[in-house]
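Let us walk through a complete example step by step. Step one is to write down the protein sequence. Step two is to encode the small molecule, magnesium ion, as a SMILES string so that its atoms and bonds are unambiguous. Step three, shown after the inputs, is the structure prediction itself.
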Amino acid sequence: MTAKVKIKIEDVTKVFANNAGEHQQALASVDLAVYDNEFICLLGASGCGKTTLLNLMAGFESVSSGTIFIDDKPVLKPHPQYQTIFQNYGLFPWRTVEENVEYGLEVKGVSLEERRAKAAGYIEMVGLEKFRNSHPHQLSGGMQQRVAIARALAVEPEVLFMDEPFGALDALTRFRMQDEITRIWQENKQTIVFVTHDIDEAVFLADRIVIMSPYPGRIKTILPVPMGRPRDRTDYDFIKIRDRIFNEFELTVKKELDYYI
Ligand SMILES: Nc1ncnc2c1ncn2[C@@H]1O[C@H](COP(=O)(O)OP(=O)(O)O)[C@@H](O)[C@H]1O
Ligand SMILES: [Mg+2]
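Step three: the predicted structure of the complex.
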């Protein structure tokens, strides 16, 4: 069985002009196929073009050359079936949790009764039933990000783009959110493109890790993570894959011991 390609990126470059009129190449000849239902992580240091590549896929930016297709159609602008979740949550502060989650359905013209019912299901999925009438400022960062996830899921998107969504959370909350997004993905089977600079997070979440390098941003290696879920961070296979990535980034320290054997 061959998996269906959901997103196809063909020879994409992106050049930005800064205020001084100088050109900066953010991406150079990027080729990538993301499969239907795949959980893919874009991993790399700050400035290697992860956000740029995600924004191009999501239709927020346009390519300088090359093409990006989703379902064989070129991406020209954002599409409601492809939802994006950002690090700063992007919630409407004047709306309650429930009203935030309903937002996408409202835009689609879904009736109040139907969107209330649908929103309730997704609020329950992220465990916020008790907070449905709260406003974002009354919630912790982790809870706000769960609202953002519920809001994105409520429109039943085929693709979820996530740009360092857990980057602002404390380590323990981040672990919980990683468990939660894994479970949600296993239940709903969307295609997820998830940007992170956290090696551990990428190994925990991804089917494949796209390792990027900077100046100009490009894909260095694509690493499959052939492990079942839920994953155990202390597992031998987990550590082996993490070590490989440390090597890719040349982060490994030559141990003194090596010189004696
Ligand atoms: N709007 C922009 N205008 C000019 N340069 C930009 C813009 N967005 C990103 N860049 C540049 O493109 C490169 C890649 O940025 P970005 O995609 O944000 O990287 P990452 O998300 O991996 O940190 C960086 O050198 C950045 O300065
Ligand atoms: Mg970024």
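Step four is interpretation. The longest helix spans residues 171-188.
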